[in-house]
Specification:
190 residues, alpha/beta, Rossmann fold, 6 helices, 18% strand
Length: 190
């Protein structure tokens, strides 16, 4: 994976990265570690923290559907925490991140934080536009057209009993196994 083992100097006191992490996979891990290398302290925002803060997004119609959001905030919190710790990141905080209501984000992150983005599609561009329009400091880490994997693909593999653990950090796999999340996905799809 590009960038995972290439430390950069901490150039900002606080950086914010965010995602749904449904579940946290190796592509997310690359983003988290890039964010951690960019700042002295990392804030990880978990989007769609609950069904009441999840809205339909015209640029990505599936991201608001309940099938696309099977894991709770707490379950995803554990995945993020485990993955960061296993990779030696110690200075981080995990917060809800209701990006569907960007005007509320000042309740969750410091006003001087730098928001870091990875952009793969129109939804990524829209998030960048929204937060920039509100005056947040933003920076794009990279723009790419291809993803390493996707949450959609991982959830499909989990439901069908196909191999999936090689696509997630060990910490994510541990949380999924401990909480029996694949069992829950299979039961819901019946």
């Amino acid at each position: 994976m590009p960038g995972i083992n290439s430390p950069a100097p901490h150039t900002d006191p606080i950086a914010v990265v965010h995602g749904r992490f449904q579940p946290l996979h190796i592509g997310h891990l690359e983003y988290l570690l890039a964010g951690a290398s960019r700042a002295a302290s990392l804030i990880v925002g978990i989007t769609n923290p609950d069904p009441w803060q999840t809205i339909a997004e015209p640029t990505d119609s599936q991201r608001g559907e309940s099938e696309s959001n099977p894991f709770t905030f707490y379950e995803r919190f554990l995945m993020v925490e485990a993955a960061l710790r296993e990779h030696g990141v110690t200075d981080f905080r995990i917060v809800p991140f209701p990006h569907g209501f960007p005007e509320r984000l000042h309740h969750y992150v410091p006003a001087d934080a730098l928001f870091l983005f990875t952009i793969y599609d129109a939804w990524g561009e829209e998030k960048l536009r929204r937060l920039s329009a509100l005056g947040w400091r933003t920076e794009v880490l990279w723009r790419r057209t291809a993803k390493v994997t996707s949450g959609t693909e991982l959830r499909r593999r989990m439901r069908e009993g196909a191999d999936w653990e090689h696509l997630v950090p060990a910490g994510t796999a541990s949380v999924v196994r401990e909480l029996r999340l694949t069992d829950r996905l299979r039961e819901v799809s019946r």
